[in-house]
Please model this.
Amino acid sequence: MNNQTQHFSSLFVAIPLLCAALAAAPVHAQIQTQSGADRLSVALSDPSRPALVKASLVNGGITVKAYDGKEVVVEARARNRESGHSDSNMKRIIVSSTGLSVEEESNEVRISTDSFARPIDLMISVPVHTSLKLSTVNSGDLVVTGVDGELDVNDVNGSVTLDNVSGCAVAHALNGRLLATFTRVNQKPMAFSSLNGDIDVTFPADLKANLSMKSDRGEILTDFDVQIQASVPQQTVEDGRGHGGRYLVRIDKAVHGTINGGGPEYQFTNFNGGIYIRKAGAPR
Model:
């Protein structure tokens, strides 16, 4: 067989193999909806295992809902800012691009947008068993509904809502309200904090937890039977005098207690807002 014949034989073998490989690869379908939102649907490497979804915005809000499916579906919509200056002889051209990009590797899904340029609102549909790592800074809230997993959510200038979630959470709403309702919890620690908003969390009635609660300028209320632990106030010392700084001593103002005999550590920290720890099914 001459070299030319060998070349064509190799080509005919390679083409079917390439087509088979492309057919087996996860499908990433991108469309723009009639409402102008960018939409991506991403298949997981192993749909039988839980996913981890990560999204971070500079400007905008994030809404995540669990659904009975195996893909992660992302919709991104740009908010068009109204200009304070106009010219009657000129027409404004609306730029609706979101710069939506979704990357998946080993069931980890990373979502990015051009949210630094304009507010972008994300609507994400995920399988029920999904862990989340979400953050936003300005012009939006974080809302998670029906997800079962490990939730790490942080909103600087908006509110955080966790509705009928399961698993565990580390949630921070610096300048907004933090509202959470758990249908089931696992045996892992949790933390909830805010600076200028209330923290309102509802847990199942059979919750077992060790509590650490502190609110400098707000009240702490609960309808659980919390056994308060007598503890000696602890001091925290920061000595920066060796570098021209100051010497600072703090007294730990946290209140510690247990629910149903104790369990994982749950921390509640606030400054200007209240802390409300509710028992599911208790009268309001």
Summary: Residues 202 and 278 are 4 Å apart (CA to CA).
